Amino acid sequence: MIQFRPFRNTDPPLLADLWCSQPPQRALVQPMTTTLFEQKVLSKPYFDREGLIVALDGARMVGFAHAAFGPTPDGSAVDTQIGTTCLLMVGRHANRQHVAQQLLTHCERYLARRGAQTWLAGCVRPMNPFYQGLYGDTDSPGLFESDTEAVRLFQAAGYQTVQTRVVLERTLQGFRPILDRLQMQVRRQYLFQVEVDPPAANWWDACTTELIERRVHRIVSRRSNQPCGRITSWEMDRVSVARGVRAAGLMLLEIDPDHRGQGLGTFLVGETLRWLHTQSAHPVELAVIQIPEDNRAGLALFEKLGFRPVDRSLVLRKTAMQPVD
Hints:
Elements: E1 2-6, H1 12-20, H2 34-42, E2 52-57, E3 60-71, E4 78-90, H3 96-113, E5 118-121, E6 123-124, E7 141-144, H4 148-156, E8 160-171, H5 181-189, E9 190-196, H6 203-209, E10 214-221, E11 227-235, H7 237-243, E12 247-255, H8 264-278, E13 286-292, H9 296-304, E14 308-319
Parallel strand pairs: 4-5, 12-13
Antiparallel strand pairs: 1-2, 2-3, 3-4, 5-14, 6-7, 7-14, 8-13, 8-14, 9-10, 10-11, 11-12
Helix pairs in contact: 1-2
């Protein structure tokens, strides 16, 4: 008989072993260790043992799922209005599907008990309390479409797709920024700057990025000395080890509204890629980013710079129709 219970302090070695037993998939970084799990998950100040549910068949751990919450709008505290099942994992077992379904039910009950009646599948920024850099490569993706078993599980439980993102990659070997008449004009008017290890924007940002090496790349007007656009990159160390290539994630691309449509996005991303490959302390060989599928301008920009789609990520959401017992 399968037993479901909250996390105990003796569980980390079993959790690490279960993680390592999973079949290869692009979403999941391997190998997992007890130390890494403690650093990335258990050390968070908002970790609640009641939200990490494990499934045991006798003394053998056959699955776990982790439910948690995101931040308040100002990032100063945890907000329990919306919850998410950050990760759900099941090992080899004769009743594998049943174990997964029950783990998801236990997560929903935990979230409902704490007041959340809207639930997400997986971590989606800013609902990304755990597993940054361990699941989802460049950014918290919700679920990868290629993770078909997880997608089917949540869809069968009533979760609906509310956003789809395209996962794009580009090797940086031989990369050259675009240089045409428009880009020459942009270069005369704007500077490219890099801030390594920027300060956290708020408490939540500090909690979720403390173990990640980040850089903020900016373009600044030569005339006003004001930043006009920015993008964040980070060293995907664990992904690099797993895939055998040094990789960097790109996220949070933003061009100020008054400066859009003038070639600044092409300049910013192009210079960022060149910096990552030629001037970073650890030259990057592969860049990865997720772009919402309905962001046609963003997709066109990265396609122009040589990125290709390799997967899609899904943001799935469910609203409880009645309290979960």
